[in-house]
Amino acid sequence: MKKSTLTLLLVLTGLVSMAGSIEKTYYFSNYKIHESGTYQTIIFDNTQQSAIPGEPSVPYQAIVLLLPPGESAETIEIVGEDEIPVPGFFRLYPRQTSRPISVDLPGEFLCNEAVYKINANYPPSPAGHLMTQYLNGYALAVCSFTPVKYNPTLGKISYYSKVTVRINTRKSSGSSDALMHLTPSEKVNGRLNNFAQNPEMMKQYSIPRSSSSDYQYLIITPTVFQNEFQSLINHYNGKGITCQIKTTESISATISGYDLQEKIRNYIKDQFLNNHIEYVLLAGNSSLVPARGFFCYVQSGSGYTDSNIPADLYYSGMDGNYDSNGNHIYAETNDDPDLFPDISVARFPVSDTSELRRMIHKSISYQTNPVPDELKNPLLAGEHLYSAPMTFGGDYMNLLINDRTDNGYFTHGIPSASNTIEKLYDSLTPSSSIYSWNSATLINKLNQGKSFIHHLGHANYNYMMRLYTSDITNQNFSQVDGITHNYQILYTQGCYDGAFDMAGCVSVKAVTISNFLAAGVFNSRYGWFDEGTSEGPSEHLEREFVSALYNDTLPEKHIGTLHLISKIKTVPFVSLPGEWEPGAQRWCHYCCNVFGDPAMEIWTDEPTAFIPVTWTGNMDTDWNKAENWNPAAVPTTLNDVTIPNVPNKPVITTTNTTFCHDLTVQDGSSIVVNPGKSIIVRGSVMLK
């Protein structure tokens, strides 16, 4: 047995156990060697390739370890045992940079020859960047390590089949402050239990009890909009989710902070701390509810820098302030930014009351009046991304189907056995030219009814899925009206299509017109992919989003929470060499935002249970008054309706379409549908 110990002194805010350390042992076996021209890659299950761009790529294991309460990670020790040589001579593939999805410039193959001439162990340190991050009050040590040793000059590889990671900890004010954010939510605790690699440590934390003041859903909006949310509030009250509204004007006048963004975040933190809120809706465009711009740099080509990435993560991560050095450049690496979102945050990027009313209507209608027989019909759209090497978005989209272990991590996917999955992919023709689908084909398919659109392709602030902002009209999507076909949801990895700080943003129009999208996930700046592969930072986030949606043990359906989980699951990969700084995974972590209602539940199956409601007419004859029904709720597609013979017979007067599932009209009773009004019965009609 050969044993090797390497101690890395990485000083951060961190945590400790009773002995001043916590340990976790990882095991490695059954490696694979992948050949790529004159280069090779060594692969282990559940590891992801990484390196500084141009240097030899090696597999890294993610570390996510709960720390004792009130403590933070100080240093990390990597202890390898049972070193096993890999026979052969190897020139490991140099890691290439990620590329913006919508920048098709000639790429430069990176290879740092100086590194390949080193006659010593590579990498010089087996660990990535050690950090302490906080999730709903729990402190976690997040890092990564490689079990591989590589001598570039000799071309020799060995690996440790057993690696023990020891995290040394210390008391810290940041970890003590984080304890205030512990929540009584069983969903949160279950999520953490599924994510941490040492969930038994949760027993050391004292979970607070719920209080009478607790509520779940906070709406932040300008005063001009504050009276528009009653239908949304009623909807969630019926689901046991209580809501409160706070205006930006009130926050500005009463809450301390450097600017309105900081005041809004301070108010959210107060409500999270004292009332354990779980959802926040930012109801307004970037002028009405301002976004916080984050800084990030990515080494790719001549480098990409943006100091104003609109990032609603600022309102979701509750620890620290994203500006620890006080220079008002937010989320720099030396700010120790909070990467774990604690609250599900989404935005209605609306500019006026009409847009707001449409978004509220689409969210409620999508959840309560689903059109049957199309809730398991997703569309996957992939475009040609790059030519040298040839890279197609369809290869990425395929990894959203069924359970996958590709590229070193496991994700659940859309079950192909129980879904009708349609693919719209660019491809190579037999003559080696490129077939590309067009916007007319896409519009036609969407007007036939799709449950969810997944897209990877080129985009800009005024262009996505080969549609310009001018193409996003009610006429073009006349059948996607919530009646003929369901409103749809889109997840796109494209660049800039979610740049809601820019006039004419294509995704803003898609969610605010009467038809088409009920919600979506978009990038406010570049999305990123790895050329010649089926992996990339944007892809990783979307795979984790889909995995949470189809998780067979802890399914999540709320779009804001799915987005939150996708970021939680990708945080360890921000610690990889080449991702900490510079890094496209960090960039995507910042720029990926949700437009829609954070608590909106996504349909993945046809409804099978229908709640019976009975007409009482206790107040009058108006079908659309909850007080006339038992239980007191206006029927939807999810209700079986019975109309008994009572004095006040129901009359349908609303301009909106009325829905129900089964409709039973008892002997002697009736329904009056006034001229120009309508009722849609999704099930059957019975006269008794």
Q: Could you give the topology of this structure?
A:
Elements lengths: L2 E6 L12 E7 L4 E5 L2 E5 L4 E3 L7 E9 L4 E16 L12 E2 L12 H4 L14 E5 L2 E8 L2 E4 L4 E16 L1 H6 L7 H10 L21 E5 L8 H8 L5 E5 H7 L5 H16 L3 E5 L9 E6 L5 E7 L33 E5 L4 H16 L10 E4 L1 E4 L2 E3 H5 L24 E4 L1 E2 L5 E2 L3 H8 L5 E5 L6 E2 L2 E2 L19 E5 L13 H7 L4 E7 L4 E2 L7 H13 L9 H16 L9 H8 E4 L15 E5 L13 E2 L8 E5 L7 E2 L5 E3 L2 E3 L6 E2 L5 E3 L3 E3 L1
Parallel strand pairs: 13-14, 13-15, 15-18, 19-22, 19-25, 25-28, 28-29, 32-34, 34-37, 35-38, 36-39, 37-40
Antiparallel strand pairs: 1-7, 2-12, 3-4, 5-6, 6-10, 7-12, 8-30, 9-10, 11-12, 16-17, 20-21, 23-24, 26-27, 29-31, 32-33
Helix pairs in contact: 11-12
User: What is the rounded Rg?
Assistant: 27 Å
Mean pLDDT: 93
- Helix percent reads 10-25%
Strand content: 25-35%
Overall morphology:
globular
Number of DSSP strand runs: 40
Summed up, what is this model?
With 688 residues, the chain is an alpha/beta fold.
3D structure, described in words:
The protein has 688 residues and is α/β, with parallel strands linked by helices. Helices cover 18% and strands 28% of the residues. The chain has 13 helices and 40 strands. The chain has a 6-stranded mixed beta sheet. Strands 1, 2, 7, 11 and 12 form a 5-stranded antiparallel beta sheet that branches. It has a 5-stranded mixed beta sheet with strand order 33-32-34-37-40, with no helix packed on it. The protein is globular, with a radius of gyration of 27 Å. Mean pLDDT is 93; it is low at 1-19.
